[in-house]
């Protein structure tokens, strides 16, 4: 039975799903990397596709921007469609001096300013959302095999894109945060709730400290390394 946000029938979604925020990126990934991709949902123009990669069924589901939207799709995929492996593939803004444009980063954990987990744990616990170690290890291996330097460390999942407190970004860098994105903490938390596996892999599209950024077309073309790492990690782990 379809959910409020996904119109797929049971069995149309693989148990392994890549989660780009941008629905058009979901379409691009499916058409570029999957064999025989079939669109299973277009609700709210948030496209989802299932095909095969190296002979294994894989789905690609857009989630929208931000933790509330990503949490809706992640929850429905895991709760209604029995998805057990998700890998976020998105863009991020670097806040660490050693990270450069086009670098690919994987989040071993996701610090956040969101109140979602405070609400979930009744303001009693500062829950620490972390990636699945097996997926992270598989991604690191896939990157090494492809000759890609995968940077592994903490991500910061922010609820705000525009900030009135830029000094926080320098403080995050001081505490080892590699980059800022907007979804990983919610996805990691829900994976823990549903006893599933999750990992966030991001391409650095801009550098917040240095003030540099990729043009939009180059940004799209630079995401291939990230997607291939995610797909190979998904099918090898």
Give the biggest sheet. 5 strands, mixed, barrel
How much of the sequence lies in strands comes to 25-35%
Output the helix-strand order.
EHEEEHEEHHEHEHEEHH
Distance between the termini: 29 Å
Walk me through the structure.
The chain is an alpha/beta fold. The chain is 34% helix and 29% strand. It is built from eight helices and ten strands. It has helices spanning 23-33, 67-80, 116-120, 133-145, 167-174, 184-193, 216-221, 224-236; strands at residues 16-19, 35-41, 48-53, 56-61, 85-94, 104-112, 150-157, 177-181, 197-207, 212-213. Strand 9 and strand 10 form a beta hairpin. The radius of gyration is 17 Å and the shape is globular. The two termini are 29 Å apart. The model has no long low-confidence stretch (mean pLDDT 95).
